[in-house]
Amino acid sequence: MSQSNNAEAHTPHAMNQIVSSSTSKSATPNKRRKRSTAVAPPRASLRAYVVLIVLVSLVFSPLLISDVLWSDFDSVERSAFQTMDSWQQAWTLDSIRQNNPIAISSYFLEQAIPLPTATVHRGINILLHLFAAILLLKNLEALKFPAAFSATLIFALHPATIQTLFWAGYRTEIIALIFILSALYFGSRNRNARDYFVTIVLTTIACLVHPAAFAIPVILALVILHKERSIHVESFNRVLPLLCLCLFLGVWVNAGSAHIEGVDTVSNIDRLNHAGQNMAHFTQQALLPLNNALFHRFDTDAKYEFGAGINLLPFLLFVPVFIFTAYNIRKGWSRAILLGLCSYLALIVYGISQDGHFINGALAHEDHHLYVALPMIVALVITVLGRIIYSMGIAGKELWVMGCSLLLLIEITLSAAFAYSIAEPTKMWTGMSERWPNAWEPKAALVDQIDLSNSSEDSLFTNSQLINMLQDVLEKRPDLVERRKQLARTFAAEGQRSNALREYKRILRETRPDNEFLEEAARFLDKVGLSWDATKTRDRKTNTQ
């Protein structure tokens, strides 16, 4: 990220005006100028805000169609809301230390709205995401970074944000980003005592909402370093109270969570291995989000056989950048890069230290751990590219408009395709079962989704495919009696009488079915010529009345 000294020529073209609304104007030549003065890039116009709102609404609108929310097939607790009976429980002292009471209370509130809960849930998430994007734009404009609006659009439409917006339980990340960006905005502006007081309040709330917020004092110190032409220790005095506040809150929060049972006892080597894989995955998803999914497979076999030191490789890749910026620390552009990179690393530390989980509890990469840090790395890359390309003059301006437009088109395509692929539950569970072939939960959910159609003609699957899915489910969960009943019926519908007979007999032998199923089994036994067995089955029905 860097300040700009380049001119932005006026153009009637709408896309040029929108994309370049956050780029730089050149300083007017001055014959007696003793030193160059940086001119703040123009702020985003009302048209830019309208474009931001419209694009986000259109790209993420398919998410509002899905009725999947707090799925029974998800065995992982995504939020403490799932175990609470009322919103008041979220505001107890222990809950405030461990959870996000604002997010939990919002889950209870949305259930009282007389609209489909799933639609309301994701509608609120999209609105909060839009607010976070606007706050990012305000921060970048306050820091006088070029290409601020372009960076905001790239973040707002990024495919890696979709898991946070779609899957229930991750609103904490969006709320945390809002408070972090709000605290950074007032802290970097710092016009008067009121701004400083608001910064303290917002930082306190942010730290109680999400552990990543403890990085706020570090980021504010880097903001001060970026703004100061010469480094003075006194300039950092206002960061010290915030640092002390965060330290106090950190001790208080950790003291309240010390008694929690079931603490993860993963070894340090495994923890470092997991963090390294998470860092590599998150950075790849931020910069090249081509492999989009709600849950990404975690390579549990990657033990880095060449030694534990290679676990640090994803982190060591940033070392050359630090060396380069340190060598040029007195230059504004170097301090801007340092600010962006350190902000990303400071906010991602918590995310990479956490293990994500698939719905069956297996280790997985989850993009919601990236959400809080995503704006920082996006802003870093886009504003640096904008500064470099715009330094080329008028040709650079045209190149930037074309390149940014192409990048946005690709990103919109990726995000819209991903949103559409999970909007319809049948497609979502199908994709999940293909990505996780050894998990029975997606297949069971898919079978239930097929049942909801109540019409095999409208189903995307044949009876043979349904049989294969049911057999996969029952192989891992033979106790699912209703699934076995469905398998028997499907065998019968497919004309596989011997297989259907085997399943019917197993159910009759191992369970105590109700009268309705006993009559169903008896009719099938009569059909295959086992009249004596059918009579015995009906006798059971009589005896159970």
What is the total number of structural domains?
2
Distance between the termini: 77 Å
Number of strands: 3
In the predicted model, the low-confidence regions spanning at least 5 consecutive residues are 1-38, 258-263, 304-310
Describe the strand arrangement of the main beta sheet, using strand numbers: 1-3-2
Order of SSEs: HHHHHHHHHHHHEHHHEEHHHHHHHHH
Overall geometry comes to: elongated
Q: How large a portion of the residues is in β-strands, by DSSP E?
A: under 5%
**Residue-averaged pLDDT, rounded?**
85
The major β-sheet equals:
3 strands, antiparallel
Radius of gyration: 28 Å
Query: Helix proportion of residues, in percent?
Result: 55-70%
- Please tally the helical runs, counting DSSP H or I stretches of 4 or more residues: 24
Structural class: mainly alpha
